TrEMBL record, chain A:
<dbReference type="GO" id="GO:0016787">
    <property type="term" value="F:hydrolase activity"/>
</dbReference>
<dbReference type="GO" id="GO:0005525">
    <property type="term" value="F:GTP binding"/>
</dbReference>
<keyword id="KW-0342">GTP-binding</keyword>
<keyword id="KW-0378">Hydrolase</keyword>
<keyword id="KW-0143">Chaperone</keyword>
<dbReference type="Pfam" id="PF03308">
    <property type="entry name" value="MeaB"/>
</dbReference>
<protein>
    <recommendedName>
        <fullName>AAA+ ATPase domain-containing protein</fullName>
    </recommendedName>
</protein>
<keyword id="KW-0547">Nucleotide-binding</keyword>
<dbReference type="InterPro" id="IPR027417">
    <property type="entry name" value="P-loop_NTPase"/>
</dbReference>
From TrEMBL, chain B:
<keyword id="KW-0170">Cobalt</keyword>
<feature type="domain" description="B12-binding">
    <location>
        <begin position="551"/>
        <end position="680"/>
    </location>
</feature>
<dbReference type="InterPro" id="IPR006099">
    <property type="entry name" value="MeMalonylCoA_mutase_a/b_cat"/>
</dbReference>
<dbReference type="GO" id="GO:0004494">
    <property type="term" value="F:methylmalonyl-CoA mutase activity"/>
</dbReference>
<keyword id="KW-0479">Metal-binding</keyword>
<keyword id="KW-0413">Isomerase</keyword>
<dbReference type="InterPro" id="IPR036724">
    <property type="entry name" value="Cobalamin-bd_sf"/>
</dbReference>
<dbReference type="InterPro" id="IPR016176">
    <property type="entry name" value="Cbl-dep_enz_cat"/>
</dbReference>
<keyword id="KW-0846">Cobalamin</keyword>
């Protein structure tokens, strides 16, 4: 199994801190072919739970994973409780040396982070095969995250009328939708069916037809299909390049 | 005249004797569940004990019986309480430490070797894996040819309060409830649940919250059991309750009385248990109205600097329990804030009860404080307020739903942080200086304690050796098949008890059985946190507006299995108030996992609470792991229950300066140290 070595780990940890502290820090970072996947969705939609299921799938393919978990800071007092990392904990992942996880606070406006985020991601790519970026929020954030990632996943709760999905600008740039089929949402399947009919018919400018999946991150149901879909999108991007 | 003047009179307190009090043994049982109370039978002197391997606790049990204990009470070690075997990575430094290590049926058999379990009542304090321990107990009886109906005692088996307060949880709540109720549904003479307010109170709740959440838990169990098709009188007589005996003397007495009345009314009005005119103490309908209670003195009130002064606190608390009319009492040991009670500590605890029972003549009188304006006022007040709080729980749809919404957890945290603030102010009062004063004469006692503690460090390797030999020698296929059967049964709805007993008899271990259930049900989800706008406000008062000059990063974790979170959450609120970025790494962590996370997160501090076990071991392991991950420059802030010698070792040898110990340090110290650390 490939690992992120001790010096790579501390270098990465240090540089992420530096980039965040000094957004103007200039550094020439070698380009890397590592794949960047963004996972977005409103708070509580189940993003971390999904990521906790995705990581073992990538690790099984011997891919080194860097996960960047972004949470907002309090605008008023600056503090932040960064709790997403806890959702990624398991006996299997806790001491996995092929995995690097970093929690990032926005420290004010989201845009404050975006300046450093491209450098943080570029640097993370040097030590990994896949970088997963988790962001909270909707709308503007998603548009901003789009430019940093190759594949954008949105986790949606089956709440409200699925027709609203069409109106929300947030879904425009998304490659893959995952409807979180938690037990406490009774309408999961119904919602999924109509979401698939609406969103699954849409194409992005580059010709990618959006995919919609139903998954339950708590039980692992449907996660294998999501992973398959992710790789399909990666292959799609590869063929585009050629 | 009124509360401000410190006394009440007939104008404030209207005692409607028949509806609010009635004679002892008569509905609503405010004055006691039995007509003659202690005149007929003293409360059971039940001392909680357990340490080391089964044989060590067995020896202690026999000593307790010889000293005059009239019932046994088993403390299990943390790995057992979390359904892990002694060889699990998380069990490191905890095996046999604060209770007895039980991995398999043979351990259980040895624990009660030479003890007449068909004659003595045995209490077992275990919750999430209670079903498996209970199955082991039945298997031991079967082996000895003892009919199951002659087993008497109590198994705590209260999964709600674990989710609310103590966090010793294994599975998602609904599966945990199912497992607990499978135990309760048995037709036995055992108290298959002890609905517990103790841990809720120790986690920082008020007396009213303690009563309200405990009785709301009781309501939820009754409803679950009714859903199983049982008749109320088939199980209700065996429901028992467990409360804290805290410092606020009269309030505590009133609390026991109020809880009895409220529970009787719930059983009568809500669950339609009739009040029979012509009654007989053996009538299960009558017994269904009883709130039988066990009380334990409050561990969280003890001081560490002058352990002997705790004897007086414990005596006062036990007196309140006695005047409140409880059925059994556990008195704490004066030294347990330093370590797990030593033999001398246990002896003094037993003597405390004996003095109260035998020398004061209190037991000659039934509910002697009834009719006192002040007691009746406070009883009524707790009764009314608890009733109101129960209706809030009901508005969520019941306790299970309220827990999912974190409601009781948040309310307890709010009360805990407010209490903590009051306490830190209290002890700064010049008159209260005695509380923290160091007692030099304690050194002699400490030497004795240290010796006993040193012995405990050997338990881990011995138990692990025994376990690994056992695992090699047993009939593997039998164990594996039994575990498979457990998995299949967990997917279905039938009562799991027969399958669990078969598994322990087929030499599957506790950890393996709990693991098999986890395969099917998954693990409990850790709650996201209990902070609220109220607790933020309190934390800002603690920090007096101090803020870090730059965004500090702190990782907070609890090492090992322990789930006591009061300090953890208060610390989280305090760091937050100082403007830190707090990485909530969570509970049940190993030092290596903490070190890896801390390095990746680039934190300035790690806050590690390792409350129970060989505490220096956790910090030593963390230091070593940090080194191997290249994070030696990260500063550690630590907390835990430890001996002064261990504290010294951590501070001087390991170089971890900021160590906070319950019963002797406070949060203000942390704030001051942080200020210094950042050069202010």
């Amino acid at each position: 199994m490939k690992n992120i070595e001790m010096f790579e780990r501390s270098a990465l940890a240090y540089m992420i801190g530096a980039f965040q502290k000094y957004p103007n820090l200039a550094m020439n970072i070698e380009p890397s072919s590592a794949w960047v996947v963004g996972v977005t969705g409103v708070t509580g939609a189940g993003k971390s739970m999904l990521i906790s299921r995705l990581i073992p799938s990538f690790r099984k393919k011997d891919m080194r994973v860097v996960a960047l978990l972004i949470d907002p800071s309090s605008q008023k007092r600056g503090w932040a409780i960064l709790g997403d990392r806890r959702n990624l904990r398991s006996d299997e992942l806790d001491c996995d040396k092929g995995l690097f996880i970093r929690s990032l606070a926005t420290r004010g406006e989201w845009s404050a982070l975006t300046d450093s985020l491209s450098k943080i991601i570029a640097y993370s790519k040097l030590f990994s095969d896949i970088v997963i970026v988790e962001t909270a929020g909707a709308g503007q954030t998603d548009v901003e995250i789009r430019e940093h990632v190759d594949t954008l996943v949105q986790v949606i709760e089956p709440l409200g009328d699925s027709l609203n999905l069409e109106k929300a600008g947030q879904s425009e740039e998304v490659n893959i939708f995952v409807v979180n089929d938690r037990e406490d949402f009774k309408s999961g399947k119904k919602f999924f069916t109509s979401a698939k009919l609406i969103l699954g018919e849409q194409y992005l400018d580059d010709g990618w037809r959006k995919k919609v999946y139903l998954a339950n991150a708590e039980t692992g149901f449907g996660v294998a299909e999501v992973v398959e879909g992710l790789f399909e999108h990666r292959d799609f991007l590869e063929t585009k390049k050629v | 005249m009124s509360l401000e003047n410190g006394f009440f009179g007939p104008n404030e307190v209207l005692i409607d004797y028949l509806t609010k009090l009635n004679d002892p043994g008569r509905y609503p049982f405010t004055r006691g569940i039995f007509p003659e109370m202690f005149r007929k039978k003293n409360p059971t002197l039940r001392q909680f004990a357990g340490h080391g391997l089964a044989r060590d606790t067995n020896e202690r049990f026999k000593k307790i019986i010889a000293l005059g204990g009239t019932g046994l009470s088993t403390a299990f070690d943390l790995p057992t309480l979390y359904g892990d075997d002694s060889d699990a990575p998380l069990s490191r430094h905890e095996v046999g430490w604060d209770g007895v290590a039980i991995d398999r049926l043979e351990d259980m058999d040895e624990l009660f070797s030479g003890i007449p379990i068909d004659k003595l009542t045995v209490s077992m304090t275990i919750n999430a894996p209670a079903a498996i321990i209970r199955a082991m107990y039945n298997a031991v009886a079967k082996k000895r040819g003892i009919p199951l109906s002659s087993l008497r005692g109590t198994i705590q088996n209260d999964i709600f309060k674990e989710h609310i307060a103590q966090n010793e949880v294994l599975y998602p709540l609904k599966h945990g409830i199912r497992l607990a109720v499978d135990v309760m549904a048995a037709r036995s003479n055992f108290h298959e649940v002890s609905v517990s307010g103790y841990h809720i109170r120790e986690a920082g709740s008020s007396a009213v919250q303690e009563v309200a959440y405990t009785l709301a838990d009781g309501i939820a169990y009754v409803e679950e059991l009714l859903k199983r098709g049982l008749k109320i009188e088939e199980f209700a007589p065996r429901l028992s309750f467990f409360f804290d005996a805290h410092n606020n003397f009269f309030e505590e007495i009133a609390k026991f009385r109020a809880a009895r009345r409220l529970w009787a009314e719930i059983m009568h009005k809500r669950f339609r248990v009739p009040i029979l005119e012509n009654y007989d103490l053996k009538d299960t309908k009558l017994q269904s109205l009883w709130c039988r209670m066990h009380a334990q003195t409050a561990g969280c009130t003890l001081t560490r600097n002058q352990p002997l002064t705790n004897l007086m606190r414990i005596n006062n608390q036990a007196l309140a329990a006695l005047l409140g009319g409880v059925q059994s009492i556990h008195t704490n040991s004066y030294d347990e804030v330093l370590c797990v009670p030593t033999e001398k500590g246990v002896k003094m605890a037993i003597r405390t009860q004996q003095i109260l029972l035998e020398e004061t003549n209190i037991t000659n009188w039934v509910d002697p404080l009834a009719g006192a304006y002040q007691i009746e006022y406070q009883t009524e007040k707790i009764y009314e307020e608890a009733k109101k709080e129960i209706s809030v729980i009901e508005s969520f749809g019941g306790m299970a739903q309220a827990i999912e919404e974190l409601y009781p957890q948040k309310k307890i945290h709010e009360n805990a942080i407010a209490d903590r603030e009051t306490f830190e102010q209290w002890k700064n009062d010049p008159n209260k200086k005695y509380f923290f004063e160091q007692d030099d004469t304690a050194d002699e006692d400490l030497a004795e304690i240290s010796e006993e503690v040193e012995k405990r460090r050997g338990y881990e390797s011995e138990q692990k050796d025994r376990l690994s030999k056992f695992k090699k020698q047993r009939y593997q296929t039998g164990a594996l098949k039994a575990l498979d059967k457990v998995r299949r049964a967990a997917e279905k709805k039938d009562n799991l008890m027969p399958v669990l007993q078969e598994a322990v008899e087929s030499s599957a271990t506790l950890g393996e059985i709990c693991g098999a259930l986890r395969d099917v049900w998954g693990s409990a989800k850790e709650s996201a946190g209990v902070s609220s706008s109220f607790s933020h406000k309190k934390a800002l008062e603690f920090t007096k507006g101090y803020r870090f000059p730059r965004p500090m990063r702190v990782l907070l974790a609890k090492g090992g299995h322990d789930g006591h979170t009061v300090g953890f959450y208060i610390l989280r609120d305090i760091f937050q108030a100082m403007g830190a970025e707090v990485i909530h790494f969570g509970f049940r962590t190993t030092p290596e996992a903490i070190a890896k996370a801390a390095v990746e997160e680039g934190v300035d501090f790690i806050g590690l609470s390792a409350l129970i076990g060989y505490v220096p071991g956790f910090f030593e392991d963390l230091k070593n792991s940090l080194k191997s991950y290249g994070g030696s420059d990260i500063e550690i802030i630590g907390g835990g229950i430890m001996l002064p010698a261990h504290e010294k070792y951590i501070k001087e040898t390991l170089g971890i300066k900021n160590i906070y110990v319950p019963g002797s340090s406070d949060f203000d110290e942390i704030v001051q140290n942080m200020k210094k650390r950042t050069g202010q």
